[in-house]
Amino acid sequence: TAAIPHPPHRLPLLGDVVGLSPRRPVQSSLRLVRDLGPISVRRVLGTDIVTVGGADLAAEVDDDRRFAKHVGLGLRPLRLVVGDALFTAEDGEPNWRLAHDILRPAFTREAMRGYHATMLDVARELLASWDAAARAGAEVDVAADMTRLTMETIGRTGFGHRFGSFEHDRPHPFVTAMTRVLRFAQLSVSPTLVSVRRLLAGSARRNRADMDLMNRLVDDVIDARRRGETPDRDDLLGLMLRTAHPGTGRTLDPVNIRRQVITFMVAGHETTSGALSFALYHLTRHPEALARAQAEVDALWGQGDDPVPAFTDIPRLRYVRAVLDEALRLWPTAPGYFRAAREDTVLGGRYRLERGDWVVVMLPLLHRDPAVWPDPERFDPDRFAPGAARRRPAHAYRPFGTGQRACIGRQFALHEAVMALGLVLHRYHPVPDPGYDLRITETLTLKPEGFRLTLTRRVPAE
Ligand code: MNH
Protein backbone atom coordinates (compact mmCIF):
# COMPACT_ATOMS: atom_id res chain seq x y z
CA THR A 1 0.00 0.00 0.00
CA ALA A 2 1.04 3.57 -0.59
CA ALA A 3 0.88 6.92 1.15
CA ILE A 4 -1.62 9.41 -0.26
CA PRO A 5 0.12 12.49 -1.73
CA HIS A 6 -0.19 15.72 0.20
CA PRO A 7 0.65 19.37 -0.54
CA PRO A 8 4.36 20.19 -0.34
CA HIS A 9 4.32 22.94 2.28
CA ARG A 10 2.95 21.27 5.40
CA LEU A 11 3.28 23.37 8.55
CA PRO A 12 3.70 21.85 12.00
CA LEU A 13 0.37 21.79 13.95
CA LEU A 14 -1.55 23.84 11.37
CA GLY A 15 -0.94 21.43 8.50
CA ASP A 16 -1.76 22.31 4.88
CA VAL A 17 -3.40 25.64 5.50
CA VAL A 18 -1.22 27.89 3.37
CA GLY A 19 -3.48 29.48 0.80
CA LEU A 20 -6.70 28.17 2.34
CA SER A 21 -9.49 30.74 2.42
CA PRO A 22 -12.38 30.32 4.88
CA ARG A 23 -14.65 32.28 2.56
CA ARG A 24 -13.76 30.25 -0.51
CA PRO A 25 -12.95 26.79 0.82
CA VAL A 26 -13.71 24.97 -2.41
CA GLN A 27 -11.71 27.22 -4.72
CA SER A 28 -8.75 27.52 -2.36
CA SER A 29 -8.68 23.75 -1.70
CA LEU A 30 -8.82 23.19 -5.42
CA ARG A 31 -5.70 25.25 -5.95
CA LEU A 32 -4.00 23.33 -3.17
CA VAL A 33 -4.67 19.83 -4.48
CA ARG A 34 -5.20 20.11 -8.22
CA ASP A 35 -1.62 19.20 -9.12
CA LEU A 36 -1.46 16.25 -6.73
CA GLY A 37 -3.31 13.80 -8.95
CA PRO A 38 -6.55 11.83 -8.60
CA ILE A 39 -6.27 11.47 -4.83
CA SER A 40 -4.63 13.61 -2.19
CA VAL A 41 -4.81 14.34 1.50
CA ARG A 42 -4.75 17.65 3.29
CA ARG A 43 -4.22 18.00 7.00
CA VAL A 44 -6.13 20.95 8.39
CA LEU A 45 -5.62 21.54 12.12
CA GLY A 46 -5.21 17.84 12.77
CA THR A 47 -8.01 16.59 10.52
CA ASP A 48 -7.03 14.62 7.44
CA ILE A 49 -9.18 15.43 4.44
CA VAL A 50 -8.80 12.87 1.69
CA THR A 51 -9.89 14.29 -1.63
CA VAL A 52 -10.86 12.17 -4.61
CA GLY A 53 -10.82 13.83 -8.02
CA GLY A 54 -10.24 11.02 -10.51
CA ALA A 55 -12.94 9.06 -12.30
CA ASP A 56 -11.52 5.58 -11.55
CA LEU A 57 -11.33 6.21 -7.83
CA ALA A 58 -14.71 7.97 -7.86
CA ALA A 59 -16.24 4.82 -9.33
CA GLU A 60 -15.07 2.89 -6.27
CA VAL A 61 -16.12 5.52 -3.76
CA ASP A 62 -19.55 5.89 -5.43
CA ASP A 63 -20.27 2.19 -4.90
CA ASP A 64 -23.02 2.00 -2.27
CA ARG A 65 -21.88 -1.48 -1.23
CA ARG A 66 -18.45 -0.22 -0.16
CA PHE A 67 -19.17 3.40 0.83
CA ALA A 68 -22.05 5.29 2.44
CA LYS A 69 -22.96 8.95 2.36
CA HIS A 70 -21.15 10.80 5.12
CA VAL A 71 -22.57 13.96 6.66
CA GLY A 72 -19.16 15.56 6.83
CA LEU A 73 -17.51 18.98 7.12
CA GLY A 74 -19.72 21.35 5.14
CA LEU A 75 -22.83 19.30 5.84
CA ARG A 76 -22.28 19.06 9.60
CA PRO A 77 -23.52 22.55 10.46
CA LEU A 78 -26.44 22.08 8.11
CA ARG A 79 -27.20 18.95 10.06
CA LEU A 80 -27.52 21.11 13.18
CA VAL A 81 -30.22 23.10 11.40
CA VAL A 82 -32.28 20.39 9.70
CA GLY A 83 -31.23 17.20 11.52
CA ASP A 84 -32.27 13.96 9.88
CA ALA A 85 -34.18 15.55 7.01
CA LEU A 86 -33.44 13.98 3.61
CA PHE A 87 -30.26 15.84 2.68
CA THR A 88 -28.50 15.60 6.03
CA ALA A 89 -29.66 12.20 7.26
CA GLU A 90 -26.91 9.66 7.82
CA ASP A 91 -27.24 6.53 5.71
CA GLY A 92 -29.44 4.11 7.59
CA GLU A 93 -31.30 6.64 9.74
CA PRO A 94 -34.95 5.54 9.71
CA ASN A 95 -36.35 8.95 8.76
CA TRP A 96 -34.32 8.93 5.56
CA ARG A 97 -36.04 5.87 4.11
CA LEU A 98 -39.41 7.03 5.44
CA ALA A 99 -39.20 10.51 3.89
CA HIS A 100 -37.57 9.23 0.70
CA ASP A 101 -40.36 6.74 0.07
CA ILE A 102 -43.14 9.16 0.99
CA LEU A 103 -41.75 11.93 -1.25
CA ARG A 104 -40.70 9.80 -4.23
CA PRO A 105 -44.09 10.27 -5.99
CA ALA A 106 -43.49 14.03 -6.02
CA PHE A 107 -40.51 13.51 -8.37
CA THR A 108 -41.88 11.22 -11.04
CA ARG A 109 -42.29 12.28 -14.64
CA GLU A 110 -46.02 12.61 -14.05
CA ALA A 111 -45.33 14.92 -11.14
CA MET A 112 -43.13 17.08 -13.40
CA ARG A 113 -45.99 17.30 -15.87
CA GLY A 114 -48.08 18.67 -13.02
CA TYR A 115 -45.47 21.34 -12.14
CA HIS A 116 -44.95 22.47 -15.72
CA ALA A 117 -47.61 25.21 -15.82
CA THR A 118 -46.44 26.68 -12.51
CA MET A 119 -42.82 26.60 -13.62
CA LEU A 120 -43.87 28.44 -16.77
CA ASP A 121 -45.80 31.07 -14.78
CA VAL A 122 -42.71 31.77 -12.73
CA ALA A 123 -40.44 31.88 -15.78
CA ARG A 124 -42.85 34.45 -17.27
CA GLU A 125 -42.44 36.59 -14.15
CA LEU A 126 -38.70 36.53 -14.73
CA LEU A 127 -39.25 37.61 -18.34
CA ALA A 128 -41.60 40.41 -17.28
CA SER A 129 -39.01 41.68 -14.86
CA TRP A 130 -36.25 41.45 -17.46
CA ASP A 131 -38.45 43.15 -20.06
CA ALA A 132 -38.68 46.11 -17.72
CA ALA A 133 -34.91 46.14 -17.29
CA ALA A 134 -34.42 45.86 -21.06
CA ARG A 135 -36.73 48.83 -21.68
CA ALA A 136 -34.89 50.88 -19.10
CA GLY A 137 -31.49 49.80 -20.44
CA ALA A 138 -30.73 48.66 -16.87
CA GLU A 139 -28.45 45.80 -15.91
CA VAL A 140 -29.83 42.74 -14.18
CA ASP A 141 -28.06 40.85 -11.40
CA VAL A 142 -28.21 37.36 -12.84
CA ALA A 143 -27.70 35.24 -9.72
CA ALA A 144 -30.15 37.34 -7.70
CA ASP A 145 -32.87 37.02 -10.35
CA MET A 146 -32.26 33.31 -10.90
CA THR A 147 -32.63 32.90 -7.16
CA ARG A 148 -35.99 34.68 -7.38
CA LEU A 149 -37.01 32.24 -10.09
CA THR A 150 -35.97 29.05 -8.33
CA MET A 151 -37.20 30.16 -4.90
CA GLU A 152 -40.58 31.03 -6.31
CA THR A 153 -40.73 27.77 -8.23
CA ILE A 154 -40.01 25.49 -5.28
CA GLY A 155 -42.28 27.55 -3.00
CA ARG A 156 -45.26 27.32 -5.32
CA THR A 157 -44.85 23.79 -6.67
CA GLY A 158 -43.75 22.19 -3.42
CA PHE A 159 -45.76 24.00 -0.81
CA GLY A 160 -48.34 26.22 -2.49
CA HIS A 161 -46.50 29.22 -1.07
CA ARG A 162 -45.83 32.41 -3.01
CA PHE A 163 -42.79 34.33 -1.88
CA GLY A 164 -43.59 37.22 -4.23
CA SER A 165 -39.90 37.24 -5.18
CA PHE A 166 -40.40 39.35 -8.29
CA GLU A 167 -42.50 41.94 -6.52
CA HIS A 168 -39.66 43.25 -4.38
CA ASP A 169 -36.33 44.89 -5.13
CA ARG A 170 -34.64 43.19 -2.23
CA PRO A 171 -34.26 39.45 -1.83
CA HIS A 172 -36.96 37.76 0.22
CA PRO A 173 -36.11 37.78 3.97
CA PHE A 174 -36.06 33.97 3.89
CA VAL A 175 -33.33 34.07 1.24
CA THR A 176 -31.31 36.64 3.17
CA ALA A 177 -31.62 34.65 6.39
CA MET A 178 -30.82 31.39 4.66
CA THR A 179 -27.75 32.79 2.89
CA ARG A 180 -26.41 34.07 6.20
CA VAL A 181 -27.14 30.79 7.97
CA LEU A 182 -25.26 28.89 5.26
CA ARG A 183 -22.32 31.28 5.35
CA PHE A 184 -22.22 31.06 9.14
CA ALA A 185 -22.28 27.28 8.91
CA GLN A 186 -19.47 27.32 6.41
CA LEU A 187 -17.29 29.60 8.53
CA SER A 188 -17.93 27.60 11.66
CA VAL A 189 -16.32 24.53 10.12
CA SER A 190 -13.45 26.37 8.49
CA PRO A 191 -10.00 26.40 10.07
CA THR A 192 -10.60 28.29 13.26
CA LEU A 193 -8.33 31.26 12.75
CA VAL A 194 -8.68 33.96 15.35
CA SER A 195 -10.30 36.41 12.96
CA VAL A 196 -12.89 33.83 11.98
CA ARG A 197 -13.71 33.04 15.61
CA ARG A 198 -14.27 36.69 16.34
CA LEU A 199 -16.51 36.94 13.33
CA LEU A 200 -18.50 33.94 14.50
CA ALA A 201 -18.97 35.24 18.04
CA GLY A 202 -20.37 38.44 16.56
CA SER A 203 -22.85 36.68 14.35
CA ALA A 204 -24.06 33.83 16.59
CA ARG A 205 -27.02 35.86 17.83
CA ARG A 206 -27.95 36.97 14.35
CA ASN A 207 -27.74 33.32 13.31
CA ARG A 208 -30.36 32.42 15.94
CA ALA A 209 -32.59 35.21 14.70
CA ASP A 210 -32.16 34.04 11.11
CA MET A 211 -33.07 30.49 12.07
CA ASP A 212 -36.12 31.73 13.98
CA LEU A 213 -37.25 33.66 10.91
CA MET A 214 -36.89 30.60 8.69
CA ASN A 215 -38.73 28.38 11.17
CA ARG A 216 -41.55 30.89 11.57
CA LEU A 217 -42.06 31.22 7.86
CA VAL A 218 -42.09 27.47 7.38
CA ASP A 219 -44.50 26.98 10.27
CA ASP A 220 -46.82 29.57 8.71
CA VAL A 221 -46.73 27.70 5.41
CA ILE A 222 -47.55 24.40 7.15
CA ASP A 223 -50.29 25.96 9.31
CA ALA A 224 -51.90 27.61 6.30
CA ARG A 225 -52.21 24.19 4.68
CA ARG A 226 -53.48 22.55 7.86
CA ARG A 227 -56.16 25.22 8.21
CA GLY A 228 -57.18 24.74 4.58
CA GLU A 229 -56.08 28.22 3.48
CA THR A 230 -53.95 26.83 0.65
CA PRO A 231 -55.25 24.11 -1.66
CA ASP A 232 -54.77 20.57 -0.40
CA ARG A 233 -52.72 18.88 -3.12
CA ASP A 234 -50.32 16.00 -3.57
CA ASP A 235 -47.36 18.37 -3.57
CA LEU A 236 -44.41 17.87 -1.22
CA LEU A 237 -46.30 19.29 1.71
CA GLY A 238 -49.50 17.39 0.98
CA LEU A 239 -47.61 14.12 0.74
CA MET A 240 -45.80 14.73 4.02
CA LEU A 241 -48.92 15.76 5.93
CA ARG A 242 -51.22 13.03 4.65
CA THR A 243 -49.23 10.00 3.53
CA ALA A 244 -48.25 7.00 5.56
CA HIS A 245 -45.38 4.81 4.42
CA PRO A 246 -46.76 2.12 2.09
CA GLY A 247 -44.79 -0.60 3.90
CA THR A 248 -44.72 0.39 7.55
CA GLY A 249 -47.70 2.74 7.89
CA ARG A 250 -45.50 5.27 9.67
CA THR A 251 -45.85 9.01 9.05
CA LEU A 252 -43.42 11.91 9.40
CA ASP A 253 -43.59 13.76 12.71
CA PRO A 254 -44.23 17.54 12.73
CA VAL A 255 -40.66 18.49 13.65
CA ASN A 256 -39.32 16.39 10.82
CA ILE A 257 -41.82 17.90 8.37
CA ARG A 258 -40.62 21.38 9.28
CA ARG A 259 -37.04 20.27 8.70
CA GLN A 260 -37.94 18.72 5.35
CA VAL A 261 -39.66 21.93 4.24
CA ILE A 262 -36.55 23.99 5.09
CA THR A 263 -34.38 21.39 3.37
CA PHE A 264 -36.42 21.60 0.18
CA MET A 265 -36.54 25.38 0.25
CA VAL A 266 -32.74 25.41 0.46
CA ALA A 267 -31.76 22.37 -1.63
CA GLY A 268 -34.57 23.14 -4.06
CA HIS A 269 -33.27 26.48 -5.23
CA GLU A 270 -29.64 27.44 -4.44
CA THR A 271 -28.03 24.97 -6.79
CA THR A 272 -30.45 25.42 -9.69
CA SER A 273 -30.08 29.17 -9.49
CA GLY A 274 -26.29 28.86 -9.64
CA ALA A 275 -26.48 26.45 -12.57
CA LEU A 276 -28.61 28.89 -14.59
CA SER A 277 -26.31 31.77 -13.73
CA PHE A 278 -23.15 29.91 -14.77
CA ALA A 279 -24.85 28.77 -17.98
CA LEU A 280 -25.59 32.37 -18.94
CA TYR A 281 -22.09 33.39 -17.98
CA HIS A 282 -20.53 30.79 -20.30
CA LEU A 283 -22.90 31.67 -23.14
CA THR A 284 -21.83 35.30 -23.02
CA ARG A 285 -18.24 34.10 -23.41
CA HIS A 286 -19.01 31.71 -26.27
CA PRO A 287 -21.01 33.45 -29.01
CA GLU A 288 -21.05 30.31 -31.18
CA ALA A 289 -22.68 28.28 -28.39
CA LEU A 290 -25.12 31.11 -27.74
CA ALA A 291 -26.05 31.18 -31.43
CA ARG A 292 -26.63 27.43 -31.51
CA ALA A 293 -28.80 27.52 -28.40
CA GLN A 294 -30.83 30.37 -29.87
CA ALA A 295 -31.19 28.56 -33.18
CA GLU A 296 -32.55 25.58 -31.28
CA VAL A 297 -35.21 27.53 -29.38
CA ASP A 298 -36.14 29.48 -32.51
CA ALA A 299 -36.60 26.26 -34.44
CA LEU A 300 -38.91 24.94 -31.74
CA TRP A 301 -40.84 28.08 -30.84
CA GLY A 302 -40.57 30.21 -33.98
CA GLN A 303 -39.74 33.90 -34.13
CA GLY A 304 -42.96 34.91 -32.40
CA ASP A 305 -42.94 36.80 -29.17
CA ASP A 306 -44.61 34.73 -26.50
CA PRO A 307 -44.17 31.00 -26.97
CA VAL A 308 -46.18 28.66 -24.78
CA PRO A 309 -43.81 25.74 -24.21
CA ALA A 310 -45.52 22.39 -23.95
CA PHE A 311 -44.32 19.92 -21.35
CA THR A 312 -42.94 17.74 -24.12
CA ASP A 313 -40.99 20.65 -25.64
CA ILE A 314 -38.51 20.72 -22.80
CA PRO A 315 -36.70 17.42 -23.44
CA ARG A 316 -36.40 18.46 -27.10
CA LEU A 317 -34.11 21.35 -26.17
CA ARG A 318 -31.07 19.10 -26.34
CA TYR A 319 -28.50 21.80 -26.86
CA VAL A 320 -29.86 24.08 -24.12
CA ARG A 321 -29.69 21.06 -21.84
CA ALA A 322 -26.10 20.38 -22.94
CA VAL A 323 -25.21 23.97 -22.08
CA LEU A 324 -26.50 23.40 -18.55
CA ASP A 325 -24.75 20.03 -18.31
CA GLU A 326 -21.48 21.62 -19.36
CA ALA A 327 -21.97 24.54 -16.96
CA LEU A 328 -22.44 21.97 -14.17
CA ARG A 329 -19.31 20.16 -15.30
CA LEU A 330 -17.05 23.20 -14.96
CA TRP A 331 -18.68 24.67 -11.86
CA PRO A 332 -20.85 22.04 -10.22
CA THR A 333 -22.96 24.23 -7.95
CA ALA A 334 -23.03 21.53 -5.25
CA PRO A 335 -19.27 21.15 -5.39
CA GLY A 336 -18.78 17.80 -3.71
CA TYR A 337 -20.03 15.02 -1.50
CA PHE A 338 -18.63 12.91 1.31
CA ARG A 339 -18.39 9.13 1.41
CA ALA A 340 -17.37 6.92 4.33
CA ALA A 341 -15.96 3.39 4.06
CA ARG A 342 -18.43 0.76 5.28
CA GLU A 343 -15.56 -1.65 6.08
CA ASP A 344 -11.76 -1.59 5.98
CA THR A 345 -10.91 -1.31 2.32
CA VAL A 346 -8.19 -0.54 -0.21
CA LEU A 347 -8.82 2.20 -2.72
CA GLY A 348 -7.30 2.04 -6.20
CA GLY A 349 -5.51 -1.16 -5.21
CA ARG A 350 -3.12 0.72 -2.91
CA TYR A 351 -4.61 3.29 -0.54
CA ARG A 352 -5.73 1.73 2.71
CA LEU A 353 -8.87 3.09 4.41
CA GLU A 354 -10.28 1.91 7.70
CA ARG A 355 -13.95 1.42 8.33
CA GLY A 356 -15.48 4.86 8.95
CA ASP A 357 -12.70 6.77 7.20
CA TRP A 358 -14.22 9.28 4.82
CA VAL A 359 -13.23 11.00 1.63
CA VAL A 360 -14.64 13.95 -0.25
CA VAL A 361 -15.32 13.68 -3.97
CA MET A 362 -14.40 17.13 -5.20
CA LEU A 363 -16.52 17.61 -8.29
CA PRO A 364 -14.68 20.49 -9.99
CA LEU A 365 -11.64 18.22 -9.93
CA LEU A 366 -13.43 15.04 -11.02
CA HIS A 367 -15.04 17.00 -13.85
CA ARG A 368 -11.61 18.03 -15.06
CA ASP A 369 -9.99 14.60 -14.84
CA PRO A 370 -7.61 14.80 -17.82
CA ALA A 371 -7.94 11.05 -18.40
CA VAL A 372 -11.60 11.57 -19.27
CA TRP A 373 -12.06 15.17 -20.34
CA PRO A 374 -9.85 16.43 -23.16
CA ASP A 375 -8.89 20.09 -22.76
CA PRO A 376 -10.86 20.16 -19.50
CA GLU A 377 -10.99 23.94 -18.96
CA ARG A 378 -12.68 24.57 -22.29
CA PHE A 379 -16.45 25.18 -22.26
CA ASP A 380 -17.89 22.82 -24.87
CA PRO A 381 -21.52 21.68 -24.68
CA ASP A 382 -20.84 19.11 -27.42
CA ARG A 383 -19.32 16.94 -24.70
CA PHE A 384 -22.96 16.27 -23.86
CA ALA A 385 -24.17 15.66 -27.38
CA PRO A 386 -26.46 12.61 -27.68
CA GLY A 387 -24.44 9.43 -27.19
CA ALA A 388 -21.32 11.17 -25.92
CA ALA A 389 -21.86 10.10 -22.31
CA ARG A 390 -21.68 6.44 -23.33
CA ARG A 391 -18.10 6.98 -24.46
CA ARG A 392 -16.79 7.92 -21.02
CA PRO A 393 -16.83 6.29 -17.59
CA ALA A 394 -20.17 6.77 -15.83
CA HIS A 395 -18.58 8.12 -12.68
CA ALA A 396 -16.69 10.93 -14.40
CA TYR A 397 -19.69 13.27 -14.12
CA ARG A 398 -21.64 13.42 -10.87
CA PRO A 399 -23.12 16.92 -10.37
CA PHE A 400 -26.18 15.35 -8.75
CA GLY A 401 -24.32 12.99 -6.44
CA THR A 402 -24.40 9.23 -6.50
CA GLY A 403 -26.28 6.05 -5.66
CA GLN A 404 -29.30 5.95 -3.41
CA ARG A 405 -28.38 9.33 -1.92
CA ALA A 406 -28.23 11.10 -5.27
CA CYS A 407 -30.33 14.22 -5.78
CA ILE A 408 -34.06 13.49 -5.62
CA GLY A 409 -34.75 16.80 -7.38
CA ARG A 410 -32.65 16.24 -10.50
CA GLN A 411 -35.50 16.04 -13.00
CA PHE A 412 -37.23 18.91 -11.27
CA ALA A 413 -34.14 21.11 -11.52
CA LEU A 414 -33.49 20.21 -15.15
CA HIS A 415 -37.06 20.75 -16.30
CA GLU A 416 -37.18 24.10 -14.56
CA ALA A 417 -33.74 25.21 -15.74
CA VAL A 418 -34.01 24.11 -19.39
CA MET A 419 -37.35 25.85 -19.73
CA ALA A 420 -36.19 29.07 -18.09
CA LEU A 421 -32.91 29.22 -20.01
CA GLY A 422 -34.69 28.36 -23.26
CA LEU A 423 -37.22 31.16 -22.78
CA VAL A 424 -34.53 33.68 -21.82
CA LEU A 425 -32.44 32.86 -24.90
CA HIS A 426 -35.47 32.97 -27.15
CA ARG A 427 -36.34 36.46 -25.99
CA TYR A 428 -33.07 38.29 -25.32
CA HIS A 429 -29.62 38.81 -26.52
CA PRO A 430 -27.53 38.87 -23.32
CA VAL A 431 -24.73 41.43 -23.22
CA PRO A 432 -22.24 41.14 -20.37
CA ASP A 433 -20.27 43.94 -18.77
CA PRO A 434 -17.08 43.71 -20.85
CA GLY A 435 -14.93 44.20 -17.75
CA TYR A 436 -16.43 41.26 -15.88
CA ASP A 437 -14.04 38.54 -14.69
CA LEU A 438 -15.61 35.43 -13.20
CA ARG A 439 -15.60 35.49 -9.41
CA ILE A 440 -17.30 32.71 -7.53
CA THR A 441 -18.99 33.08 -4.14
CA GLU A 442 -19.35 30.11 -1.86
CA THR A 443 -22.23 29.62 0.53
CA LEU A 444 -21.85 25.84 0.57
CA THR A 445 -22.99 26.15 -3.05
CA LEU A 446 -21.23 28.08 -5.82
CA LYS A 447 -22.51 31.09 -7.75
CA PRO A 448 -20.98 33.67 -10.07
CA GLU A 449 -20.62 36.85 -8.04
CA GLY A 450 -21.53 40.26 -9.40
CA PHE A 451 -22.37 38.87 -12.85
CA ARG A 452 -24.61 41.39 -14.58
CA LEU A 453 -26.22 41.45 -17.99
CA THR A 454 -27.76 44.05 -20.20
CA LEU A 455 -30.59 42.60 -22.24
CA THR A 456 -31.75 43.44 -25.71
CA ARG A 457 -35.06 42.06 -26.89
CA ARG A 458 -34.47 39.87 -29.95
CA VAL A 459 -38.00 40.33 -31.26
CA PRO A 460 -39.28 43.87 -30.71
CA ALA A 461 -42.65 44.04 -28.97
CA GLU A 462 -45.54 45.25 -31.14
MN1 MNH B 1 -30.24 18.27 -5.06
C1 MNH B 1 -29.11 15.79 -2.95
C2 MNH B 1 -27.09 18.53 -6.38
C3 MNH B 1 -31.42 20.51 -7.33
C4 MNH B 1 -33.26 18.27 -3.47
N1 MNH B 1 -28.43 17.34 -4.72
C5 MNH B 1 -28.20 16.32 -3.82
C6 MNH B 1 -26.83 15.90 -3.93
C7 MNH B 1 -26.25 16.69 -4.89
C8 MNH B 1 -27.26 17.59 -5.39
C9 MNH B 1 -24.80 16.64 -5.35
C10 MNH B 1 -26.12 14.81 -3.12
C11 MNH B 1 -25.42 15.42 -1.93
C12 MNH B 1 -24.61 14.42 -1.10
O1 MNH B 1 -24.38 13.29 -1.54
O2 MNH B 1 -24.20 14.81 -0.01
N2 MNH B 1 -29.39 19.35 -6.55
C13 MNH B 1 -28.08 19.30 -6.94
C14 MNH B 1 -27.91 20.20 -8.07
C15 MNH B 1 -29.13 20.75 -8.34
C16 MNH B 1 -30.07 20.21 -7.37
C17 MNH B 1 -26.58 20.45 -8.76
C18 MNH B 1 -29.56 21.72 -9.41
C19 MNH B 1 -28.88 22.00 -10.49
N3 MNH B 1 -32.01 19.24 -5.34
C20 MNH B 1 -32.32 20.05 -6.40
C21 MNH B 1 -33.72 20.38 -6.36
C22 MNH B 1 -34.25 19.75 -5.26
C23 MNH B 1 -33.16 19.02 -4.62
C24 MNH B 1 -34.44 21.27 -7.37
C25 MNH B 1 -35.66 19.73 -4.76
C26 MNH B 1 -36.72 20.11 -5.41
N4 MNH B 1 -31.03 17.25 -3.48
C27 MNH B 1 -32.30 17.42 -2.98
C28 MNH B 1 -32.48 16.54 -1.85
C29 MNH B 1 -31.30 15.80 -1.69
C30 MNH B 1 -30.40 16.27 -2.75
C31 MNH B 1 -33.74 16.44 -1.00
C32 MNH B 1 -30.99 14.70 -0.68
C33 MNH B 1 -31.48 13.38 -1.25
C34 MNH B 1 -31.25 12.21 -0.32
O3 MNH B 1 -30.20 12.15 0.33
O4 MNH B 1 -32.12 11.36 -0.28
From TrEMBL:
Source taxonomy: Bacteria, Bacillati, Actinomycetota, Actinomycetes, Streptosporangiales
SUPFAM superfamilies to which the protein is assigned, alphabetical: Cytochrome P450 (SSF48264)
Residues where heme binds: 407
Record InterPro entries: Cyt_P450 (IPR001128), Cyt_P450_CS (IPR017972), Cyt_P450_E_grp-I (IPR002401), Cyt_P450_sf (IPR036396), Cytochrome_P450_Monoox (IPR050196)
Cofactor(s) listed in the protein's UniProt record: heme; FAD; FMN
PANTHER family: BIFUNCTIONAL ALBAFLAVENONE MONOOXYGENASE_TERPENE SYNTHASE, CYTOCHROME P450 FAMILY 4
Short name of any one Pfam family annotated for the protein: p450
PROSITE patterns: CYTOCHROME_P450 (PS00086)
Protein name, as recorded: Unspecific monooxygenase
Record family assignment: Belongs to the cytochrome P450 family.
Enzyme class: oxidoreductase
Keywords on record: FAD, Flavoprotein, FMN, Heme, Iron, Metal-binding, Monooxygenase, NADP, Oxidoreductase, Transport
One example GO MF annotation: heme binding
Oxidoreductase is among the record's keywords: yes
Assigned EC number: 1.14.14.1
CDD domains cross-referenced by the UniProt entry: CYP120A1
